[in-house]
C-alpha cells in the first residue's frame, strides 16, 4: 500500500513509499528512508502522528495515510519576555 512520510523541519520533507499491508508507523518511517536524510530525528523523543492525530510507533497504517514526524517545541525566552 502507498503511504507518505512527512517531517516538519525548517524545510519540510515528504516522501512517498510502498509498505506491506498492516505495516506500522515505525516500519513506514524506516522504509521511506527519511532517517537517512534527517539524522537529527530521534523517534524515542519526538512525537508522531497520522493526519494530525498523535499515534504510537506501532500503530497500523491504512492505504493513503500520511505519517507525520513532529519537531520538538521549544521556547527561548529573551529579555523582553515577562513572566507576569
TrEMBL record:
<dbReference type="InterPro" id="IPR005346">
    <property type="entry name" value="RnfH"/>
</dbReference>
<dbReference type="InterPro" id="IPR037021">
    <property type="entry name" value="RnfH_sf"/>
</dbReference>
<comment type="similarity">
    <text>Belongs to the UPF0125 (RnfH) family.</text>
</comment>
<dbReference type="Pfam" id="PF03658">
    <property type="entry name" value="Ub-RnfH"/>
</dbReference>
<dbReference type="InterPro" id="IPR016155">
    <property type="entry name" value="Mopterin_synth/thiamin_S_b"/>
</dbReference>
<protein>
    <recommendedName>
        <fullName>UPF0125 protein SAMN05216201_11859</fullName>
    </recommendedName>
</protein>
Amino acid at each position: 500500500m502507498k503511504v507518505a512520510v512527512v517531517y516538519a523541519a525548517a524545510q519540510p520533507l515528504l516522501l512517498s513509499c510502498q509498505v506491506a499491508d498492516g505495516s506500522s508507523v515505525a516500519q513506514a518511517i524506516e522504509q521511506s528512508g527519511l532517517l537517512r536524510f534527517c539524522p537529527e530525528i530521534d523517534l524515542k523523543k519526538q512525537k508522531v502522528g497520522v493526519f494530525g492525530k498523535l499515534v504510537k510507533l506501532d500503530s497500523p497504517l491504512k492505504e493513503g495515510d500520511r505519517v507525520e514526524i513532529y519537531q520538538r517545541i521549544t521556547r527561548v525566552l529573551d529579555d523582553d519576555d515577562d513572566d507576569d
